[in-house]
Write a structure and sequence with these properties.
The complex is a heterodimer.
Chain A: E1 12-15, E2 19-31, E3 34-43, E4 49-53, H1 54-59, E5 63-64, H2 68-79, H3 89-102, H4 104-119, H5 126-147, H6 151-162, H7 174-178, H8 192-195, H9 208-214, H10 229-239, H11 253-256
Antiparallel strand pairs in A: 1-2, 1-5, 2-3, 3-4
Helix pairs in contact in A: 2-4, 3-4, 4-5, 5-6
Chain B: E1 2-6, H1 12-26, E2 30-35, H2 48-54, E3 65-70, E4 77-79, E5 82-84, E6 88-90, E7 96-100, H3 111-125, H4 155-167
Parallel strand pairs in B: 1-2, 1-3, 3-7
Antiparallel strand pairs in B: 4-5, 6-7
Helix pairs in contact in B: 1-3
Classes of the chains: A alpha+beta, B alpha/beta.
């Protein structure tokens, strides 16, 4: 972390997830009996004003603009055939969020390159597309400031490394990502269609079926198994090819991350949580549904015809 | 409003088709506002950055986008990571952009590609970045498949540019 103690008015800083900002004022104020030094910043793009205590600058992740040496390192990183992004969407989202907030220029480059390489395997879901665009925006902005060039030149400077002139982007295969061991095959976040795989290349379904039956209704097992390692996930993937409908996460990626069937045949480990209630055996057809509302009154049995109604008024005079 | 200024002579029918296509693409007015001459001392191939800096000031409102159109070559830009082919250049989230038609064979019959280049640069002036979708006009222009694409934005870029146009102060 660069030194933030020797700040001066006019210095350019980078506020995480906000972009470039400029120091406009450094002032000591007395608040509740204690003297605090506040640094006023103006976000360059939006013009928003932020006032931060000097002690909290580092804690908030505010840093100085990268140097040309940092840019060289970033260019080398972009040029290299670096490791691919994790195929586990949860891990990827967590890593990328951390990189955006505290990773510096190289962190931004990692997010941009990681998601771009992933997009060569399959289209990015909307949330990640948005994250990619945010990262690219912050990266271009800082790179331009670090290299003292226009944003257009800064963007093209790294895009000619990511999109090589005269060449179309390569098609990535799942194997390239699997070779990293960063996530099991079940963590691909891919449907078979997106992979372009035939049904014939997938695992024969026979071993998966009994497991599937055994685990019907075990929605709870999906939730907190993130830290249990890839093996557990793999077996879960074999057993439950589709996530339960009622357990959709807010993150849209989950919708496209139904784990693909795999070739692994391992004994399923014990699932955590309450076992499912045994379903009652259905032998007889279910009774017809009860009619709602008050039952109708029983009609009286009609035996004789009812007497004629009495004539009203005075009876006729006798003649 | 997108105002097109020509640095060289272009067929009026071509300019008409271009303005119409830009109007369709962005949903804002587009017109050929006149011709300007290249700044003194600029020789082919033009340095795109210098050209944008030294071009004469043209009459435009604050939220107008000004697109300069030339049939001369723009020199590739030398950047930290290599040489970037230059089909056009723009100032991000600003007003000015320049596009060259020199790479397009038989421009009169290939307005579509010129429009794609123009859309790309004008969208940069609205603050959009390069896109991952090869069909989108915001895909990097130096890729071989770019010339075969249509004058369209992907859904994400379409939404972004619409949002930018809506929030532009007028």
């Amino acid at each position: 972390m660069p030194d933030m103690t020797s700040l001066a008015v006019g210095d350019r800083l980078v506020y995480p997830n906000q972009g470039l900002c400029t120091v406009t004022e450094i002032k000591t104020e007395e608040i509740a009996g204690s003297k605090l030094t506040f640094v006023s910043l103006v976000i360059t793009e939006t013009g928003a004003k932020v006032k931060v205590p000097r002690e909290k600058l580092e804690k908030n992740g505010v840093r100085r603009v990268s140097t040309p040496d940092d840019v060289k390192g970033v260019v080398d990183y972009l040029r290299s055939d670096s490791e691919k992004a994790s195929l586990d969407w949860k891990k990827r989202a967590r890593d990328n969020t951390a990189r955006l907030s505290e990773g510096g220029l190289i962190g931004l480059a990692e997010v941009v390159k990681g998601l771009q390489v992933l997009s060569e395997l399959r289209p990015l879901p909307p949330k990640e597309r948005e994250q990619y665009n945010d990262a690219r925006h912050l990266f271009v902005e800082e790179l331009g400031a670090a290299m003292s060039v226009q944003a257009a030149d800064a963007e093209d400077a790294f895009d000619i490394l990511l999109f090589v002139p005269g060449k179309d982007r390569p098609k990535r295969s799942v194997e390239e990502f699997q070779a990293l061991g960063l996530g099991g095959e079940d963590d691909l976040g891919l449907e078979g269609d997106l992979l372009g795989l035939d049904g014939s290349e997938e695992t024969p379904e026979e071993p998966a079926e009994p497991e599937e039956k055994a685990e019907e209704g075990e929605g709870d097992a999906e939730g907190g198994d993130e830290d249990e390692g890839p093996k557990k996930k793999k077996s879960a993937a074999i057993a439950a090819p589709k996530p339960p409908k009622g357990k959709k996460s807010l993150i849209s990626d989950l919708e496209v991350t139904a784990p693909a069937a795999t070739a692994l045949v391992e004994p399923a480990p014990k699932k955590r949580g309450r076992p499912p209630k045994p379903k009652p055996e259905v032998t007889e057809p279910p009774p017809p549904p009860k009619k709602r509302g008050r039952p109708p009154k029983p009609k009286p049995a009609v035996t004789e015809p009812p007497p004629p109604p009495k004539k009203r008024g005075r009876p006729p005079k006798a003649k | 409003m997108i105002r097109i200024f020509t640095l060289d002579e272009f067929d009026p029918a071509l300019l008409k088709a271009l303005t119409k296509s830009l109007y369709t693409a962005f949903g804002v007015g587009s017109e050929h506002s006149g011709a300007v001459t290249a700044p003194h001392g600029q020789q082919e191939p033009y340095d795109a950055n210098k050209l944008l800096e030294t071009l004469p000031k043209v009459h435009a409102l604050k939220d107008d986008k000004v697109l300069f159109l030339t049939s001369r070559k723009l020199a590739p830009r030398k950047l930290a990571s290599g040489e970037a082919p230059t089909f056009g250049l723009s100032r991000y989230s600003a007003q000015l952009a320049v596009v060259t038609a020199v790479h397009i064979k038989n421009v009169a019959d290939n307005v579509k590609l010129l429009t794609r280049y123009a859309m790309h640069e004008v969208a940069h002036t609205y603050g959009l970045h390069h896109c991952l979708d090869p069909r989108c006009s915001m895909y990097p222009q130096w890729t071989p498949s770019y010339a075969n694409g249509d004058c369209i934005f992907c859904t994400y870029c379409r939404d972004s540019v619409d949002a930018k146009i809506r929030t532009t102060k007028s």
